[in-house]
Amino acid sequence: MGATSNRSTGSTGDSLVLKQIPRDLAVAVDPAETEAHDRKWTPLKIAIWAGISLLGGLSWVMLAVVRGETVNAIWFVFAAICTYLIGYRFYSNYIEKHLLKPDDRRATPAEYKADGKDFAATDRRVLFGHHFAAIAGAGPLVGPVLAAQMGYLPGTIWIIVGVVLAGAVQDYLVLYFSMRRGGRSLGQMARDELGVVGGTAALIATLVIMIIIVAILALVVVNALAESPWGVFSVGMTIPIALFMGCYLRFFRPGKITEISIIGFVLLIAAIIGGGMIADTEWGSTFFLLDKVTIAWGIIIYGFIAAILPVWLLLAPRDYLSTFMKIGTIGMLAVAIIIIRPEISAPAVSEFASSGTGPVVSGTLFPFLFVTIACGALSGFHALIASGTTPKLIEKERQTRFIGYGGMLMESFVAIMALVAALSIDRGLYFAMNSSPALTGGTIEGAVAFVNGLGMTGINITPDLLAQTAKDVGEESIVSRTGGAPTLAVGLAHIMQQLIGGTAMMSFWYHFAIMFEALFILTAVDAGTRVARFMLQDSLGNFFPKFKNTSWRPGAWSATAIMVAAWGAVLLMGVTDPLGGINTLFPLFGIANQLLAAIALAVCMAIVAKRGLFRYLWVVALPLAFAAVVTISASFLKIFSTVPAVGYFAQNRAFSGALEAGETSFGTATSVLAMEAVVRNTMVQGVLSIVFVTLAIIVIFTAIQATWKAYRTNANSSSEDPAVQSQIFAPAGLLVTPPEKKLQAEWDALPAEKKYTRAGH
Amino acid sequence: MNSGVVGAVRRGARSVAWYLKGMLGEDAYEKYAAHHAARAADPSCAAHEVMTEKEFWRDQTDRQDRNPQSRCC
Lengths: 761, 73
Description:
heterodimer; A: two-stranded antiparallel ribbon; two-stranded antiparallel ribbon; 4 strands; 68% helix; B: mainly alpha; 70% helix; 0% strand; flat
């Protein structure tokens, strides 16, 4: 460039400058000016924030204190939005100012490593949508549904407070630290900060956690599609639709993504409508009526093929479809909840919160609420996304707050809507759908007897309601449709039909919701298998160098087969489990996800400590301590509890004892074969719990060690990439502040040919 | 008055289309081309092969093949 630079006010004496001579325009608003604007409380600003606080406070009072016979859903929406706004405006601002101190004079990887492909500066609003679509999946939709058995209040508080203090903090920190390190992955950062032992434990934990998460997501799909010809047909049709879209983009009109997504969406709707017609025919209802085991095998075979096919053929087009559906459906649900404002008659806190005997997921509120709702409040998986694509696309450092913290708030809102949808259906219906077939016998009579026998006040379900609801949504039966997805679909259909179409449309909305969830999950299964395969190949490559070459076919295929076999085995175990599957396996999903969060936060804590910011260490240490206590105590209960419904090994002992005593049926297992299956499954689940918790303790311990060492030696080191001068400007948040507006106008006035920045090499 | 409304609607539709394209990544080639145009204008950068649109899209999915990204749960 060769130009001299103009050191203007606001530069803190290092080599970075605010203004760059060739354009003579600032690349960032002067920090002092930003600070002054931040601190200036105009009467209007005061009025707005007072209004937000009052509305938020009132909503919390309505939810937590007033607790009338019924609660209107609008209070959930207001409580969530107002709390998010306050958390974003004040808490994330505090983190930005004291802990992270982003510097917009510094170029982001998207600028200094720009290659026009993987590293490309992206508009912050677009990137927000992008990041949100990558983090939000089926998790925030399923967890809150299952946790609804404890009443509406515990889940609501955890989702809203948890995201502000833990989940969004994690996402923000990981995104920021990865961005400062050229977009390095969580695994690499763990190795850098925690050394070989901590880094290796983090890597193995990530791999095992991924397998569990893929398996349990697949289990949710299996449960939603079993005995549902309509669902099987319409979800099955997504495969040919995606193949068609892939070929269209590859050979016919490359790059016309919006166009083909709209075509794909229309075909998808046609598949849903067509599914209803086919399920009505004699042959359709027999041909597509599949049991759980068959569907599970179908998904396993599908998972293998999908993961070895080229991305353009299946994964990429389905990703477009899934993004399209995600944004559309979530927006639609938000609008519907605000317009319809359903009344919720569930208790604030149900008896299952303290007794721990709930049929949906066993265990008491602490710690099991916090592992049942992982996504939406605190999700470790996000750390993989926030250290993946997003940091390579960020335009300016200060935008990490809007994208990282803000994106997670948005996911939390999705979780709140899922909770509202699940709570808006009849409470008895909720329990009939979510109690395992082992308890209800899978029949209407059995379900009625079981649910009414739970002894909950105000619940009296009739066989007619169950039969009628099944008919309305176009299913054979809705008894024991566990896994959360069918319940959410009934809730969504229940809300949407009041807005569009009435009961006649309910079956369409139900299958629309099932399709929407299956689409995410199948994409997550496919992508998860691929990522796991690369991780495995990378590790195997240390022993057999040939495996490092990821395009070596035999290596790629065998590594894929190993990964599919691993999650497939867990899936089959869940599907055939005599105890019901989802209620025993779901805690493992939550624990796995939260342990990953603990690992990510541990890495963040070590980084903060090495920067010497001990005064603000609590921002990371607080959520880390919480996640560690929750997951470790949940794991310990799963391992050591003597209550068979909670402890895996207690269950194992109970069943093997019965087998030894020569009994031929025990509890919900009605044959020796089933009893042996329980013994096997509980052993596997118990061992997995031990592996998880051991790995997580190693990682947390090494992080504490690194933190302590940094404290002792008064460290002030950093593993960041060296600072590079930025040459572009963009506003930081969703709304453009007045100082930003002024500067933006100067940039806009620049002649076009001068706007391009010199790119990286 | 009326033309103002039409103009506003048109602007709104244009920004929705812009957003959707950005979200789905349809503008990837434009960004790539702009990046290379800027480099071509800069004498300190050596000349590079620039991919055609079709090559670019093929390359993009092939890169995803080599470097998979997980989707969240």
